Amino acid sequence: MSSEQDHLKDTDTEARFEFKKEQNAAVKSDKGLTEEIIRMISEDKDEPDWMLERRLRALQQYQNMPMPSGWPGMPDLSGLDVEEIVPYIRPDVDKREGVDDWTELPDEIKDTFDKLGIPEAEKNALSGVGAQYESEVVYQNMQEQWEEKGVIFMNMDRAVQEHPELVKEHFMTTCVPPSDNKFAALHGAVWSGGSFVYVPEGVTVEMPVQAYFRMNSEGMGQFEHTLIIAEEGSEVHYIEGCSAPKYGTHNLHSGGVEVFVGEDAHVQYSTVQNWSKNTYNLNTKRAIVEENGTMEWVSGSMGSKATMLYPCSILKGRGATDTHITIAFAGEGQDIDTGAKVYHNAPNTSSTIESKSISKDGGRTNYRGLVHIADGAENSSTAVECDALMFDNESTSDTMPYMEIEESKVDVAHEATVGKIGDEDIFYLQSRGLDDDDAKKMIVAGFIEPITEELPIEYAVELNRLIELEMEGSLG
Amino acid sequence: MARLELTNLHAEVAEGGEKILDGVDLEVESGEIHALMGPNGSGKSTTAKVIAGHPAYEVTEGEVLIHIEEDEFGDDIEIDEDQRTWDLLDLEPNERAALGVFLGFQYPAEIEGVTMTNFLRTALNAKIEEREELFEDEEEDEAAEEDEAGFETSPMEGPADEGEIGVAEFQGILQEKMEQLDMDEKFAQRYLNAGFSGGEKKQNEVLQAAILEPSIAVLDEIDSGLDIDRLQDVSNGINALRDEQGTGILQITHYQRILDYVEPDHVHVMLDGKIAKSGGPELAEALEDEGYDWVREEAYGTA
Predict the structure, then answer these.
(1) What is the Cβ-side half-sphere exposure of residue A334, based on CA atoms within 13 angstroms?
(2) Touching check for B154 and chain A: CB below 8 Å?
């Protein structure tokens, strides 16, 4: 074990999250990212030729692209060795059938819930699709109801087999092409698992579509791909939760999310993610929004060594709307570089970005945002608000909001606040009976409230609890 | 019954060492109303903050004791002979709160995202729990803590654990107290002091006192910035604290005005970090008419 991992073991919080699962690899590849490995993955999944070709093309693009560099203040990726990491996907792929029953989950994962201090009832709710009998019945009823309306919700690997036309048209073509960036290219080559959601014209899916825990239970969460297609006038809320730690020992997560928001459609994509602290979390998430469509991104980013994540909306149609609400938490040795991108490419489009970050024990958070308003996107408006909360003088927080405004008839607002958790605030709560820890927890819970109120209660509880756990050990 | 006792209290600013309190002696008992008056900078607010345990001040000499009678916290808590007197200076602010000391702030903090309901219920439960910890023997205490690990302190609104006041029960308590204070029920879902007017903040301080039922409440300029209607509401609330819960009140104020509604049993004048003169309600009237100079003259022999 490296000294770094030793160090990670040092804190209680870390001990709670550092779960290791034995890898029982059926097939083991050589180290290094090669065409042979890509072919092996594709074959293992019985993929059609066109998908294999896409993978190979992405691999080529990956090999020809340089690592991102020259971004002011970008996280240090020098500890990331992709050549060392990629072979680890093989044992993961092995488990692609996944588990659909709580009892089949690895003990480590069940143990995680216990360590998180989540009561039985909550576990049942959180384990989502699987777990308990009652929730299973509910889930199946929902499933049937959706299917009758033509809604598709399935594993992305299966979607390649069962809905090739839809996937062929949308998968890493116009939204996130592999050429977008080096890690999108890597993702295109080695992607595995994830969710496919299709909502037909005019259909509203009332309950959130949840992929809580799915990535974990399928053991392939590191390069999962999520593709959401919401046709004209449809509405869906997709939630991806992964608050339990990854049980692998991987140290790269490079996910891809593509969302197609049709005319007058409304998609909310929410995610609460917590990565083990040796993970490089480098993702590409993007939505294309047609006329009068609405895209809402809600995300809580926890854990990881370094995160680079800037969910993006391209407001392509007139009157399209985008909302971003993000929260980031960085503790010791963590660099969370996250934000939002919005391209206003049509008139009357609007966007709001609300970014919140918390840093402690020398952790760093950075808001990196880009709002682009194209020439001709008249009467568009954008409002960006970034709030940073710091626990101590060692922690840092930066704000890098880029604005590219090519149109003059627009309304642009930016506001940023940075503050340390106030001694007066803590004293006030203490004088009312809360101890120091609880006072800080309450202030942080209040700070992230705009996120938690957007999430179903079980996710909100979970997010709060995770942040509480992160805060433990450093307080006292 | 409870009694707060400040003896020869000296305090200075923790960073910088500027001396502020220079030997304060003061006693407040359950059911009494004391007014603490004095010019700006005389040490009134510092006295309040030192009692509550504000970290910005360092006590260099003296004691702040609270004496608690056996029946102070009802039947649920058994108070041994040797646990009836506590030196507040040895305790954390939240422990002082659990012993029944309340500070009403002149400038209360604004906490975004935390609803009044959630905050007050958490505070009430924290106080109950802290009392148990202070008054139960240690072994039991540890066992109980292990049982509850991870659940008992969540600031999220959730199901109550054993011995806690649940959401529904608390709603009842809150509603009743808010009606008494003539507060709009919408307050319950607003964020703690966030966007409150000056008057609303003061009313909120009294509401918190009403809910936490302290033995001794120190109210720091609770009357500043209030219009006449609000002053009456706040005064009614303070009187109710004394009359219904037997709270002892230390009312810090500049003005006679509030004392027309909250009639003090004792009035103290603070000058240069100590109590220069004490008397009955007539003292406050004399101050209103004649200012502080005559007190200074009387105390020091100079004007």
Answers:
(1) 31
(2) yes
ipTM for this model = 0.92
Find tokens 């609803």 and name the residue.
Answer: B115
Provide the CB-side half-sphere exposure for A198 (13 A, CA).
Answer: 21
> Encoding tokens for residue B92?
């954390």
Q: Which residues of chain B are within 8 Å of residue A441 when distances are taken between CB atoms?
A: 153-155
Of B110, B289, B268, residue with least CA distance to B204: B110
Those residues with Cβ within 8 angstroms of residue B185's Cβ, 6 or more apart along the chain or in another chain: B175, B178
User: CA B249 to CA B48: how far, in whole Å?
Assistant: 12
CA distances from A398 to A118, A155, A394, A473, B77 (A): 34, 37, 13, 25, 50
Contact predicate B293/B44, CB 8 Å: no
User: CB-based contacts of A126: which residues, under 8 Å, 6+ apart?
Assistant: A113, A118, A212, A213, A241, A243, A458, A462
With CA atoms as reference, the chain A residue closest to B119 would be: A442
pLDDT in tens, chain A (476 residues): 344 434 333 333 333 333 333 334 444 445 568 898 889 889 988 999 999 999 999 999 999 998 888 888 899 988 887 777 665 444 433 333 444 444 544 454 455 555 544 444 445 444 433 222 223 334 455 677 788 899 998 888 889 999 999 999 999 999 999 999 999 999 999 998 888 999 999 999 887 777 654 344 333 447 889 999 999 999 999 887 665 444 455 578 888 999 999 999 999 999 888 777 778 899 999 999 999 999 999 988 888 889 999 999 999 999 999 999 999 999 999 999 999 999 999 999 999 999 999 999 999 999 999 999 999 999 999 999 999 999 888 999 999 999 999 999 999 999 988 888 888 999 999 999 999 989 998 999 899 888 888 877 767 777 777 787 777 743 32
* Chain A touched by B196 (CB under 8 Å): no
At residue B205, the 3 state secondary structure works out as helix
With CB atoms and an 8 Å threshold, state whether B109 touches A429.
yes
User: In 3-state terms, what secondary structure has residue B32?
Assistant: coil
Measured between beta carbons, the chain A residues lying within 8 angstroms of B126 are 432-435, 438
Instruction: Answer whether A429 touches B (CB < 8 Å).
Output: yes
Comparing C-alpha atoms, which of A336, A297, A303 is closest to residue A467? A303
Triad B96, B98, B100: Cα angle to 5°: 75
Rounded distance, CA A248 to CA A279, Å?
10
Which of B94, B156, B192 is nearest residue A433 as measured by Cβ atoms? B94
Interatomic CA distance for residues A358 and B72, integer angstroms: 42
Contacts of A424 in chain B (CB under 8 A): 109
Contact indicator for A311, A286 with CB cutoff of 8 Å? yes
Q: Which long-range contacts (CB under 8 A, 24 or more apart) does A249-252 make?
A: A249/A20, A249/A23, A249/A88, A249/A278, A250/A85, A250/A88, A250/A222, A250/A279, A251/A80, A251/A85, A251/A278, A251/A279, A251/A280, A251/A305, A252/A80, A252/A82, A252/A85, A252/A222, A252/A279, A252/A280, A252/A282
* Strand B57-68 versus strand B85-87 pairing type: antiparallel
Q: Are strands B274-279 and B266-271 parallel, antiparallel or unpaired?
A: antiparallel
Question: Which residues in chain A touch residue B150, judged by CB atoms under 8 angstroms apart?
Answer: 116-117
Report the alpha-carbon distance of residue A358 to residue A186 in Å, rounded: 30
B111 touches A at CB < 8 Å: yes
